[in-house]
Specification:
Helices cover 47% and strands 11% of the residues. It is built from ten helices and eight strands. The relative contact order is 0.14. The protein has one domain. By secondary structure, it is an alpha/beta fold. A hairpin with a 4-residue loop joins strand 7 (137-139) and strand 8.
């Protein structure tokens, strides 16, 4: 991906020199469990509904920690490689800002970009204390994206999905969740919490975010190098629910899916890539068994 020398977003907050602590080891254990459940890392366990509620800003895990989080300043000094990753993230976010501003104008709306917070280890959010083990995530309560850059090493080594465009795809997916919040889609799904169809709606929400990442890639083609799309498709394949479940627990449990299968994630990303139009990705109109 051609990114050096291009515009960097001013909506990136560098929180790597801040550390959060909270009262009680119980909270750390809970966050560790959620970290193994949420996003592209960890294992799928039976607290799916509570996890999705956290992601949508409906519950605050800090209430279970026994104390409010406290942030302390540190003298953290990033390596040269990590600082280059930070600059890369700034350019990718700027890309999403330019593309979605234009796309929202096309459909008669105004885009409001999110803030992206780069942190280390743990950090307080409006959705509770974020943990690096969760992988990148979006908090609709404060409309911010959170990422620990060490995740990119995990993406390359554990998930065998290296490459700068694979990294960019991850950010574009989280920006997709921000778009869903702006359009009121996330709120509608949140209102279904506790209903039998809630987990299926969660999968549709995630696949739509993959579609929106594909729309972003469509408008970004002139900056792509040969093999970039394959990098993104490889990442989508490696972080499907079925692939993660098979890797971590040796079997696939479809009723526990929260993000969609590898095939579904690749297919919806590719649909967005081919379409380039936000209105062509209504996953909620598609029957669940046809996703």
């Amino acid at each position: 991906m051609k990114w050096k020398g291009r515009r960097a977003s001013t909506n990136v907050e560098d929180a790597r020199n801040r550390r959060v602590s909270s009262g009680g080891a119980g909270g750390t254990a809970i966050l560790g469990l959620v970290g193994k459940t949420f996003g592209v890392k960890g294992i799928i366990v039976v607290i799916v509904l509570a996890l999705i509620g956290w992601k949508m800003g409906l519950i605050d895990p800090s209430m279970l920690t026994g104390g409010a989080p406290q942030v302390q300043e540190t003298n953290y000094q990033p390596s040269a490689d990590e600082q280059e990753q930070f600059q890369f993230v700034q350019v990718v976010l700027a890309d999403t800002e330019d593309i979605w501003t234009a796309e929202f104008q096309r459909i008669g709306q105004q885009y409001q970009p999110p803030t992206l917070v780069v942190f280390k280890s743990r950090y307080p959010t409006a959705c509770g204390v974020g943990d690096a083990r969760m992988g990148p995530f979006y908090c609709p309560a404060d409309r911010k994206i959170y990422i620990d850059l060490s995740f990119y090493d995990e993406l390359a080594q554990t998930f065998q999905a290296p490459g700068d465009f694979a990294q960019a795809y991850v950010i574009a997916h989280e920006v997709g969740h921000h778009i869903q919040t702006l359009l009121g889609i996330s709120q509608q799904v949140a209102e279904a919490r506790g209903r039998p169809e809630y987990n299926q709606l969660s999968v549709k929400l995630e696949l739509q975010a993959d579609f929106l990442a594909g729309v972003w890639a469509n408008h970004n083609r002139h900056y792509l190098d040969q093999g970039d799309i394959e990098e993104a498709m490889r990442a989508a394949n490696q972080i499907g629910d079925d692939a993660i479940q098979q890797r971590t627990q040796g079997k696939v449990v479809p009723h526990a899916f929260t993000h969609g299968t590898s095939e579904q994630r690749m297919r919806w990303f590719n649909r967005g890539l081919q379409s380039g139009r936000i209105e062509d990705g209504d996953t909620f109109e598609v029957p669940y068994d046809q996703l």
